[in-house]
Amino acid sequence: MTAAEKPPEPARCWVCDSPRLARWRDATTVGPLTSADFRITDAHYGRTAAIERCADCGFRQCAELADALRYYETLDDPGYEESAGERARQMADLLALLRRFKPAGRLLDIGAGSGILLAEAQRLGYAAEGVEPSHWLAERAAAKGLTVHWGTLPHAGLRPPYDAALLIDVIEHVADPLGLLAQARDVLAPDGVGLVVTPDIDSFAARRLGARWWHCRVAHIGYFNRSTLLRALDRAGLTPLHVMRPRWHFSTAYLAQRLPVYVPFLRRWNPLARLPEVIVPLNFFDSLGVVFCKK
């Protein structure tokens, strides 16, 4: 048998490296995928690749999308910029938490998007920069005068160490979460702190809604719970300092558009659509946030 004829290596768990993976949920994607399927603002809830569950640690992953990075390099997302106001408030909440552990210094945002968090961090006095795989989003950040390096870690344009490193809704998008966490560890100063935020597959909302949960999307290829997230941090050489449930901020227009998916009567009569445009803080307790440091 030639090398070309050899069967592919069986997938292993991205968190504990176990080979004991079993189908947990079948694929619900239709047709070939494009970068548009990976937009941050994608609203096709419940549409995912096939999800495998690790029998040893419980982590769930979409092994067939291990090459997802190629979609992000060509991704654009105009809707992301349109929701910058509510996202800025969300980032302000997370930075308020970070300031309890690291009130100043050099900050790196890993998966910086168009720089919404960076702008808030600079307003608070941090020397902030980021790295982002989407060329389109990195260009939007540059147009705002923000320093966002196009690409992924490790990146030649970065000058570590950093006092803070943030991974906000990032590790669920990558096929090597341990590697990404280890890279975040490597750019931190000895007394630096990090913050990781990701959806919680064992939250009440996730269990109640099943495949209809809003975090079940093509772009999410790794699904953590508290146990697997803490295990990933430990294996990456990191120590948790604080675990929390972050809240999010939504405009009334956004809620009027998205809630009818879950509340059928709103499709016929939607009072939210008649409300003035305001931003509402909500916490569905279905995300996890962990402040961490080096071991």
Give a quick summary of the entry.
The protein is an alpha/beta fold. The chain has helices at residues 69-73, 78-82, 84-101, 116-123, 135-143, 177-187, 204-209, 226-235, 252-258, and strands at residues 21-25, 51-54, 60-61, 106-110, 127-132, 148-150, 162-168, 188-199, 222-223, 238-244, 248-251, 279-282, 287-294. It has a single domain (10-294), classed as Rossmann fold, CATH 3.40.50.
- Low-confidence residue ranges: none
What's the SSE pattern? EEEHHHEHEHEEHEHEHEEHEE
Remind me, CATH topology?
Rossmann fold
Content-based structural category: alpha/beta
Distance between the termini: 45 Å
Q: Tell me the number of helical segments per DSSP (H or I, 4 or more residues long).
A: 9
Judging by the overall fold, what is the CATH architecture? Answer: 3-Layer(aba) Sandwich
Q: SSE layout and pairings?
A:
Blueprint lengths: L20 E5 L25 E4 L5 E2 L7 H5 L4 H5 L1 H18 L4 E5 L5 H8 L3 E6 L2 H9 L4 E3 L11 E7 L8 H11 E12 L4 H6 L12 E2 L2 H10 L2 E7 L3 E4 H7 L20 E4 L4 E8 L1
Parallel strand pairs: 4-5, 4-7, 5-6, 7-8
Antiparallel strand pairs: 1-2, 2-3, 3-9, 8-13, 10-13, 11-12
What would you note in describing this structure?
40% of the residues are buried. The strands form 3 sheets. Strands 6-5-4-7-8-13-10 form a 7-stranded mixed sheet, sandwiched between helices. Strands 1-2-3-9 form a 4-stranded antiparallel sheet, with no helix packed on it. The protein has a single domain (10-294), classed as Rossmann fold. The chain is 27% helix and 23% strand. The chain has helices at residues 69-73, 78-82, 84-101, 116-123, 135-143, 177-187, 204-209, 226-235, 252-258, and strands at residues 21-25, 51-54, 60-61, 106-110, 127-132, 148-150, 162-168, 188-199, 222-223, 238-244, 248-251, 279-282, 287-294. It contains 9 helices and 13 strands. The N and C termini lie far apart (45 Å). The mean pLDDT is 94. The longest helix is centred in the first third of the chain and has 18 residues, at 84-101. It is globular and about 55 Å long.
